[in-house]
Amino acid sequence: MKKKVLTVDDSRTMRDMVSFTLKGAGYDVVEAADGQQALGVIGANKVDLVITDLNMPVMDGLTLIRRLRATPAHRTLPILMLTTEADEKKKSEGRAVGATGWIVKPFNPEKLISVVQKVCG
Amino acid sequence: MEDLSRFKQTYFDESAELLEVAESGLLRLTPGEVDSDEVNAIFRAVHSIKGGGGAFGFTELVAFAHEFETVMDGVRNNTVPVTTELVDTLIRANDLLGQMLAYAREGDPAPAGTTDGTVAALRRHLSGGAPQVQAPAAAPAAPPPAPVYADDEDDEAGLFGDAMAAIAAARAEEDPVPPGKLRWTIVFRPRSDLLMSGNEPAFMLRALRRLGDATVECHTNALPNLQNLEAELLHLSWTVTLIADPDIDLDKINDVFEFVADDCDIRITAEAPPPAAPEAPPVTDPVPVATATPPAVVAAVPETPKAEAPKAEAARPRPNGGGAEHAGLTSHTIRVDLDKIDRLVNMVGEMVITQAMIAEHVRELPPGEFQELLEGLEQLAQHTRELRESVMSIRAQPVSSVFSRMPRLVRECAATTGKEVQLVTSGETTEVDKTVVENLVDPLTHMIRNSIDHGLEGPEERERVGKPRAGTVHLSAQHRSGRIVIEITDDGRGINRPKVLSKAIEKGLVQPGAALSDEEIDNLIFLPGFSTADQVSNLSGRGVGMDVVRRNITSLGGRIGVYSTPGEGSRFVLSLPLTLAVLDGMVISVGEERFVLPLTNIVESLRPKAADLHGLVGKCDVMMARGEYVRLVYLHQLFGIPGAVADPTRALVVLVETEDGSRLGLVVDEVLGQQQVVIKSLEANFRRLDGVAAATILGDGRVALILDVAGLREMSRHMDSRAPRSPSSPAAALPAPALEPV
């Protein structure tokens, strides 16, 4: 069974790139433009991995992670932060709310795939 | 690997939208009343442009976006105060970002020093805040020195790990490493709550397997007995022995544990084959492999932070909770090539015609029979109408894309004229056909300039007459009876009628002594060659006057009028059709021919009495209508149609008005009725004809020409000085309505 990845980003370019790269690597990809939409998508799909941007309108990435972790069903769902914030502070903030890991933008497709494999097999 | 350049188009499209978001946000940025949602939206726009730019390797663009972003971040964190000067700098920066995008799109490097001035200006605003100006992220920067990790602060875990490492090392001694390989011993003891972060040790072990030949040993000694077992906690630890090629270095192994290094006790040791073996160890410097002696050297420890260019993020972005108003920016949309939509519009047009044809035939059926067929057709007609409206609505766009350009214009005009101006807009979400939207930019730009330049008074003059110093220009849009109505209202001095009148007389546009109503005088400003400014100013006097505005508007099938009250201001009212694909027309007959007259041109139709008709010797016939002489144009003469009614007292005269306001009486046989017609381009299907704007197909399947009133007037003028009919009369001097072909 193909694993399903949800990419959450307010930038269409980013969503397209993540989606295209992962589909090429054999994953199913669903998209959402902000945290609020992401919650809706997760409600309707069984998702194996969430890749989320942090800075987004309506609901930002950290809030999304917090909301997901507060749901028993998603306590162990892998969630990657996709962000240009390379600083440690951002990462630890993400980890504190329960992010699984992070991908630093700009990323290359190989890096994305390897990180995705690392957290969802 | 996939080529990411295929996303460049998306990136540039999106960036263009983001630039607009940033610009409109910046224009609303007012010192003293900073809206944090607004600031966040601007920050995000710049941030997204930077992020995407990085993916495509646009280093110059990213470097500049970074400077811009840094200042926006300062604004967000209130470390950079919002001043008018700052807003100006940011607007310039946004423009420059647009230019950098253009360079990147063309694949050209930006000329050296393009960004220098703006970067310097941006940094000046930062200097007041925290000393955080750093090299741009894209510039190669030395990675921070990897901290040398001594031991885990968790003593217990540390001891435990050491013990296991020792065991592993001991075992290594009795089992030599194969030649040409490296043997890694990885002791991995995760914290018990590791699963709660969504990390899964099994995937990490799997990842290690991908690096080489791995033997995994699982330690279950920490496993509690079943009644104490917490299912969501992790009680296992592992020792992995990995025989790998020399190109697998410590970084690659550490990378597997990238996300969990802080939550785990990880010991990694490496050993090379015995000295006899060929020189194997990699030279990558962080790999501390002892090449000399077989006993393994405890090499490295948990995690060396990934080397990254230092970022100049001043501080963490705040989560932005309540930005719901920006939700519209990321609505669910798809991008479709315009050609595809136009094909769809075209097909729907054909369908409307076919439907009308069937309806026509059905009308001839004996009444009372075929009831079900008639009902079905009625439904078909209903659905066709709805389908057409839906398809047309795909092409519809909110006027906000035009309105959003105006604050900038107002700002510039205010600066140039030294006037204080406040722009109020409303009805931005009103939708209208894309082509109409695009064609609104120039007229609106000109009219707003005109309002500020001519309408509004300077601040001192305003104070003298008891008005607020800042003048207000109100730009609004709304749907009204199937058209879009755009109004530009200013609270300035209003139109100076005596001045307008004397100027019009001076220019020969009005006869001296002519009695004109106030409204007529006001509308003189739309006449070609009229300019009220005493001196041609930098703003309005760019070689175009209100006549050009009117021509643009009428060429879209629109009308424009002005209502002015001296001392209180002026109101310009534009009314435009919602689409250029369908036209409200009046079907008329001349002989056996049918023509369509755009409804917007028609004033009235009447049957003149013989007493109203006058012939001008050697010239045209004129008719007295509502107190003015109107030139009569015989369509049957103009187009050479036999069998038409030639006597106006037995025929009908349709009074039409051209775009410059002059009137014409068209002599036709009959007025058949009002109808919405689908516009077919004549040029695309045949060739341009004088006096004809386009064609359409009527319900009975006949082709009817849509008349261009201004063209007819030109043709009739040429006929005055020639033989009754000239097949090759020169093209009309006024442009034919730019009707959108369907």
Reconstruct the topology from this structure.
The complex is a heterodimer of chains A (121) and B (742).
Chain A: E1 4-8, H1 12-24, E2 28-32, H2 35-44, E3 49-53, H3 61-69, E4 79-83, H4 88-97, E5 101-104, H5 109-120
Parallel strand pairs in A: 1-2, 1-3, 3-4, 4-5
Helix pairs in contact in A: 2-3
Chain B: H1 8-28, H2 36-55, H3 59-76, H4 84-106, H5 116-127, H6 155-174, E1 182-190, H7 201-211, E2 213-219, E3 237-244, H8 250-256, E4 264-271, E5 297-300, H9 338-362, H10 371-394, E6 396-398, H11 400-403, H12 406-417, E7 421-426, E8 431-433, H13 434-455, H14 459-464, E9 471-480, E10 483-490, H15 497-506, H16 518-522, H17 546-555, E11 559-565, E12 569-577, E13 582-590, E14 593-598, E15 602-606, E16 613-615, E17 621-625, E18 628-634, H18 635-639, E19 652-657, E20 663-668, E21 670-678, H19 682-685, E22 692-697, E23 703-707, H20 709-720
Parallel strand pairs in B: 7-9, 14-23, 18-20
Antiparallel strand pairs in B: 1-3, 1-4, 2-3, 4-5, 6-8, 9-10, 10-12, 11-12, 13-14, 13-21, 15-19, 16-17, 17-18, 19-20, 22-23
Helix pairs in contact in B: 1-2, 1-4, 2-3, 3-4, 3-5, 4-5, 9-10, 12-13, 13-17
Notes on the structure:
The complex is a heterodimer of chains A (121) and B (742). Chain A is α/β, with parallel strands linked by helices. Chain A has helices at 12-24, 35-44, 61-69, 88-97, 109-120; strands at residues 4-8, 28-32, 49-53, 79-83, 101-104. Chain A has a single domain, classed as Rossmann fold (3-Layer(aba) Sandwich). In chain A, strands 2-1-3-4-5 form a 5-stranded parallel sheet, sandwiched between helices. The two termini of chain A are 12 Å apart. The relative contact order of chain A is 0.18. With 742 residues, chain B is an alpha+beta fold. Chain B has 5 domains: 4-127, Four Helix Bundle (Hemerythrin (Met), subunit A); 155-300, no CATH class; 338-395, Orthogonal Bundle (Helix Hairpins), CATH 1.10.287; 398-577, Histidine kinase-like ATPase, C-terminal domain (Heat Shock Protein 90); 582-720, SH3 type barrels. In chain B, the strands form 5 sheets. Chain B has a 6-stranded mixed sheet. A 5-stranded antiparallel sheet of chain B has the order 2-3-1-4-5, sandwiched between helices. In chain B, strands 7-9-10-12-11 form a 5-stranded mixed sheet, covered by helices on one side. Classes of the chains: A alpha/beta (121), B alpha+beta (742).
